[in-house]
């Protein structure tokens, strides 16, 4: 069977585990109690179709994790020949918002390619680069949401620009997703038929180059495992990490989404919760 078809196959398989085992669920609840917040977690083993879920259908602010999907939207447009990776976008000082490491390096040139901007959002989670890509490839956040609907995602939504989308106000559905919906869309785009293999390889390489998640999913796996991830951090304990986890021995990757909210704890403490939750999964599935 062709590798693309093989990777897409688990989406059609029945879930082998709809929730975390009781003992592990108790550990997850203990993690939540320790930090006084909510932890949403969903994992899919693309080799077997088994899943592992905790608060998987509750809404959480996505924060900058949406940038992984935005990068895929740009890549899909390249695949469809709507634009090219070397197409240029004009940069203006007025485009700058907070957290702009890549944008600040590119601004003196007065322009940047789509490849530059995508690298900026995946490697350094650059906010003005994200806004520029939203305008260039989606027109508005609502246009991005419409594209998600075309991918079969009826849950994930983007309503605001950076940096307002990180507000995470209580009960606000704007700029949110659920762990299950986000994971299924990641699977479609990064492993399945949503993108060509060339575009997937490009996004994998940029995600691999990022160091923003070293205390999150990366810290939850043993040595020798590979993690490609995109983090997001917002107000009120929105400390997130999403991506692909590759067990050793050539096993199929896992799609993992960890989203948090409502905790007053420090970011490093919540990052450790993400790592510990993935560690529980590794032990459960190893």
**Class per helix and strand makeup:** alpha+beta
CATH level 1 name: Alpha Beta
**Shape assignment:** globular
The helix-strand sequence is HHEEEHEHEHHHEHHEEEH
| Total DSSP helices | 10
Q: Would you tell me the overall average pLDDT?
A: 93
Strand element count: 9
Q: In the CATH hierarchy, what is the architecture at level 2?
A: 3-Layer(aba) Sandwich
Fraction of helical residues: 40-55%
CATH H-level superfamily title: DD-peptidase/beta-lactamase superfamily
Low-confidence stretches: 1-18
Radius of gyration (CA) equals 18 Å
Distance between the termini: 26 Å
CATH topology heading: Beta-lactamase
Please identify the oligomeric state: single chain
Sequence-ordered SSE layout with sheet pairings:
Blueprint (H helix, E strand, L loop, with lengths): L2 H6 L13 H14 L2 E8 L5 E4 L5 E2 L4 H14 L8 E3 L10 H6 L4 E3 H10 L3 H12 L2 H10 L25 E2 L1 H13 L5 H13 L16 E8 L5 E8 L7 E8 L5 H19 L1
Antiparallel strand pairs: 1-2, 1-9, 3-6, 4-5, 7-8, 8-9
Helix pairs in contact: 2-10, 3-5, 3-6, 3-9, 5-6, 5-9, 6-7
């Amino acid at each position: 069977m062709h590798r693309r078809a093989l990777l897409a196959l688990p989406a059609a398989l029945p879930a082998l585990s709809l929730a975390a085992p009781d003992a592990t669920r108790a550990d997850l609840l203990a993690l939540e109690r320790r930090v006084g917040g909510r932890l949403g977690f969903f994992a899919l083993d693309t080799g077997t179709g088994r899943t592992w879920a905790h608060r998987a259908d509750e809404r959480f602010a996505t924060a900058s994790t949406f940038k992984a999907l935005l990068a895929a939207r740009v890549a899909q447009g390249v695949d469809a020949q709507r634009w090219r990776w070397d197409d240029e976008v004009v940069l203006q000082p007025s485009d700058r918002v907070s957290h702009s490491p890549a944008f600040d390096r590119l601004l003196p040139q007065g322009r940047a390619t789509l490849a530059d901007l995508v690298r900026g959002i995946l490697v350094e989670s650059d906010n003005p680069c994200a806004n520029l890509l939203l305008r260039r490839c989606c027109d508005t956040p609502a246009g991005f949401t419409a594209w998600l609907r075309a991918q079969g995602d009826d849950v994930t939504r983007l309503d605001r620009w950076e940096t307002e989308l990180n507000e995470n106000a209580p009960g606000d559905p704007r700029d949110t997703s659920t762990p299950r919906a986000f994971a299924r869309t990641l699977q479609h785009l990064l492993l399945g038929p949503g993108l060509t293999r060339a575009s997937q390889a490009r996004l994998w390489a940029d995600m691999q180059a990022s160091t923003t998640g070293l205390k999150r999913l990366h810290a939850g796996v043993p040595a020798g495992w590979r993690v490609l991830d995109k983090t997001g951090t917002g107000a009120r304990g929105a400390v997130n990490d999403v991506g692909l986890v590759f067990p050793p021995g050539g096993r199929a990757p896992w799609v993992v989404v960890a989203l948090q909210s409502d905790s007053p704890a420090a970011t490093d403490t919540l990052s450790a919760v993400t790592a510990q939750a993935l560690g529980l999964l590794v032990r459960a599935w190893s």
